[in-house]
From TrEMBL, chain A:
Underlying gene: ccmA
One example of a Gene Ontology biological process annotation: cytochrome complex assembly
PROSITE patterns (alphabetical): ABC_TRANSPORTER_1 (PS00211), ABC_TRANSPORTER_2 (PS50893)
SUPFAM superfamilies in UniProt: P-loop containing nucleoside triphosphate hydrolases
Key words, A-Z: ATP-binding, Cytochrome c-type biogenesis, Membrane, Nucleotide-binding, Translocase, Transport
Organism per entry: Alloyangia mangrovi
Name of the protein in question: Heme ABC exporter ATP-binding protein CcmA
TrEMBL record, chain B:
Record organism: Alloyangia mangrovi
Localization terms from the record: Cell inner membrane
Principal location: membrane
Protein name, per record: Heme exporter protein B
Physiological role: Required for the export of heme to the periplasm for the biogenesis of c-type cytochromes.
Length: 204, 218
């Protein structure tokens, strides 16, 4: 099933930031979003993840198929690495956390409290969470922040494996992951024209 | 859902989790009151049910802003919102976890602390019953307030102001059950009112909390 976005406009605080955006993401494909800071990539990803409603247009094939990873990893510093991962696995009704530990090189850190990990290790644990969701569409916001080169390669490898298994990925990132097959979408041309909303947004 | 409850309980009892904060506050209030109002047992036993209830309410209030604030700060609230759990379920579990870590210890400690306030012997049962019935309402109402103020830096002040008036009915009927029980009067009417408040909030407020949380996460 494709993720299809048609004529989408997304708003931040009631002010549209991107508009007339359309794309289709097929299984096995990756789409990289590019654009300068503040161009609305995060807002777009949050809208697709279902955290905020679309300002205009429609999104198909999202909802329960999305695994979302934001800037913050959602880790509990007083829980160990396995406890953090196992919690998310249980929430998503999965059981096996071993492949995720292997894929992101978290072996040897299993019993460490997440609060004592380095920034890069925390990020790896946050990304490992994606693998225990069992969901086909990964929506990732700047996934490589604070990762070293080896970890970026490891992450690209995990994405590639996910694509090979029929999943898809939508990434906002500034660095080249070496995903040769990925399409690139620059959001700059879709910047919304300034306009005044006539509705009161607060309780929509 | 169970996983979320277990995680919250586990976090509460680990370092910095805040378990026992409400209980310690409750203990301090009830220990200090006799020093403040004097050792006259007649007066103390008359005000004991009300003091126990006010102490429990304030102790509950103390830990409310932690219900969602910590999850919001580290981003796990966003991730939970995209998880296959219904938002209503998440807020109910959060309220339940708050009650287990704050309300339940207060209920169990109240009879013991009643001794310090020379609570009449007939009052112990009714203090216990009224708190057991009333504290879930305090947690559920407090979760609603916490959902309203999530994302506000230092939202604790606003939270207290929002929640206090909502706590008044629970306090009135809860303390009335305890007072009438202690004086050996019939407790049926306030007890039924208290039960009505508790079950009513339990049935309705999770939907309101989920709705405001969705708006606040945007």
């Amino acid at each position: 099933m494709n993720l299809t976005v048609r004529d989408l406009a997304v708003a931040r605080g009631g002010v549209p930031v991107l508009e007339a955006l359309s794309f289709t993401l097929a299984p096995g494909r990756a789409l990289v979003l590019r654009g300068p800071n503040g161009s609305g990539k995060t807002t777009l990803l949050r809208t697709i993840a279902g955290l905020q409603p679309a300002f205009e247009g429609e999104i198909e094939g999202a909802g329960e198929r999305i695994a979302y990873a934001a800037h913050s990893d959602g880790l509990k510093s007083m829980l160990s690495v396995t406890e953090n991962l196992r919690f998310w696995a249980q929430v998503f009704a999965q059981t096996d956390i071993e492949p995720a530990l292997d894929a992101f090189d978290l072996r040897g850190l299993e019993e460490r409290m997440a609060g004592t990990l380095s920034a890069g290790q925390k990020r790896r644990l946050g990304l490992a969470r994606l693998m225990v969701t069992g969901r086909p569409v990964w929506v990732l916001d700047e996934p490589t922040v604070s990762l070293d080169t080896a970890s970026v390669a490891r992450f690209a490898e995990a994405v590639r494996r996910h694509l090979a298994e029929g999943g898809s990925a939508l990434l906002a990132t500034h660095i080249d992951l070496g995903l040769g097959e990925a399409q690139v979408l620059d959001v700059t041309p879709f910047k919304a024209a300034p306009r005044v909303s006539l509705e009161d947004e607060a309780f929509l | 859902m169970i996983a979320l409850l277990l995680r919250d309980l586990r976090l509460a009892v680990r370092a910095g989790g805040g378990f026992g904060l409400g209980l310690a506050f409750f203990l301090i209030v009830t220990v200090l009151i006799p020093f403040g109002v004097g050792p006259e047992t007649g007066l103390l036993s008359r005000i004991a049910p009300g003091i126990l209830w006010i102490g429990a309410l304030l102790a509950c209030l103390l830990s409310l802003d932690r219900i969602f604030a910590l999850d919001w700060e580290d981003g796990s609230l966003d991730l939970l919102a995209t998880a296959p759990l219904p938002m209503e379920g998440i807020v109910t579990i959060k309220a339940l976890a708050h009650w287990i870590t704050t309300g339940l210890p207060l209920v169990l400690a109240a009879p013991a602390l009643g001794v310090l306030l020379s609570l009449p012997p007939s009052g112990y049962l009714w203090v216990l019953v009224s708190l057991a019935l009333g504290t879930p309402a305090l947690s559920v109402i407090g979760t609603f307030g916490a959902a309203l103020t999530v994302g506000l830096k230092r939202g604790g002040l606003l939270l207290s102001i929002l929640v206090l008036p909502l706590y008044v009915p629970t306090l009135i009927f809860g303390a009335e059950v305890a007072r009438r029980g202690a004086e050996g009067l019939a407790v049926q009417t306030p007890l039924l009112m208290l039960a009505g408040i508790s079950f009513g909030t339990l049935a309705l407020l999770p939907f309101a909390s989920a709705a405001v949380l969705r708006i606040n996460l945007r």
